[in-house]
Write a structure and sequence with these properties.
Bound molecules: 5'-O-[(R)-(carboxyoxy)(hydroxy)phosphoryl]adenosine
Strand order of the largest sheet: 3-2-1-4-5
Number of helices: 11
Helix content: 40-55%
Shape: globular
CATH topology of the largest domain: Nucleotidyltransferase, domain 5
Length: 334
């Protein structure tokens, strides 16, 4: 089954063709980073307009590179939540029109379910059940993936997402946007014990919930203090200490959940899964506890449409299709 998949929830426009949920025939991505860089973050209106400008071209290119004719597309899948509403709307409306024109089913896909499904593309043998840590720019959650479309959130951030913590910290350190990669790169030259950053605790009875705003504020305060007093700031050391703190918070929650639920298969997904410290720490911890770790290659960590095609296939098998009344949503439970 060939699915034409569309992703437009934030600052990447992406269209892919995926066969049977597992084989990527084409995977086109247009990154808007250059458009937003000057503003230090994503400007929603600019994002929506840019999606509109390139989406048709990308779809044509995705079909051409896949070597698939329009009549051989069996369904159209799209991210319909969560995301920047104007941005998601562009992809949803494009997908609705394409499904209508091709006379095929329309499949709405939750963006985070898509990130989780990136692992199906990278690991053909992976099947639920497994535990998945989904870490992106807007979401951070620990998910019990019982089935392809049967999953529940065990714990999540109470405030900022892990990616937001990296992005805001990078901004105050003058490292640009998006900040995760520059912090990751800089951290490799630094001492991860240079700064004693907090590991914010979370009140309440959910041991898997997390918090990153205190950590972000600590980095911002250190940077402002250095600016105001003229004292030098060890940027590589601060970047390394931040990566260590974020990784320890995520790893602690994930391993505790894997122990409690008895999971031997642990996956990580989302843009922040590209972080080298997090990848290394998870690899080591899973190796030491005899667990199998799944982390997508870097291209499949960030936003892409192939992952939407992968999850779309399983949503279709579960009968989750929509009609042309489908709407876009800024927020949506998993
Ligand atoms: O999954 P994604 O592309 O978009 C969302 O769905 O949000 O994630 C983007 C996030 C940004 O916050 C970005 O700074 C972060 O992923 N990121 C990283 C790395 N590469 C991207 N964070 C830490 N280390 C990286 N190497």
């Amino acid at each position: 089954m060939n699915i034409l998949a569309v992703e437009s929830s934030c600052d990447e426009t992406a269209v892919a063709v995926v066969a049977d949920g597992r084989r990527v025939l084409s995977d086109e991505i247009f990154s808007q980073v250059a458009l937003h860089e000057i503003y230090g973050g994503v400007v929603p209106e600019i994002a929506a307009r840019s999606h509109l400008e390139v989406i048709t071209l990308l779809a044509e290119r995705a079909l051409e590179r896949a070597g698939v004719a329009r009549r051989d597309i069996d369904a159209v899948a799209c991210t319909y939540a969560p995301g920047l509403i104007g941005a998601v709307l562009v992809g949803v409306n494009f997908a609705k029109s394409a499904a209508l024109a091709l006379g095929v089913p329309l499949i709405p896909v939750h963006h985070i379910r898509g990130h989780i499904a990136a692992n199906y593309l990278a690991y053909p043998q992976l099947e639920p059940p497994f535990l998945c840590l989904a870490i992106s720019g807007g979401n951070t959650m620990l998910v019990d993936v019982r089935g392809y479309t049967d999953m529940s959130v065990l714990g999540q951030t109470r405030d900022d997402a892990a990616g937001e913590c990296f992005d805001k910290s990078a901004r105050v350190l003058g490292l640009g946007y998006p900040g995760g990669k520059p912090i990751d790169d800089l951290s490799r030259q630094g001492d991860d014990r240079a700064y004693d950053l907090p590991r914010p605790s979370v009140h309440g009875d959910n041991p898997y919930d997390m918090s990153f705003s205190g950590l972000k504020t600590a980095v911002v305060n250190l940077a402002h203090h250095a600016q105001q007093t003229g004292q030098p700031l060890d940027k590589p050391g601060l970047a390394a200490s931040l990566c260590r703190a974020v990784s320890e918070i995520l790893l602690g929650r994930t391993m505790a959940a894997a122990d409690a639920l008895g999971y031997d298969h642990v996956a990580v997904a989302g843009g922040v899964a590209a972080n080298s410290r997090i990848r290394g720490d998870f690899e080591r911890a899973c190796g030491q506890t005899g667990r199998q770790l799944y982390v997508p290659p870097l291209r499949l960590c960030g936003d892409n449409a192939a992952m939407i095609g992968a999850q779309g296939y399983y949503e279709f098998l579960a009968g989750h299709t929509a009609d042309s009344g489908l709407n876009a949503y800024a927020t949506m439970a998993l």
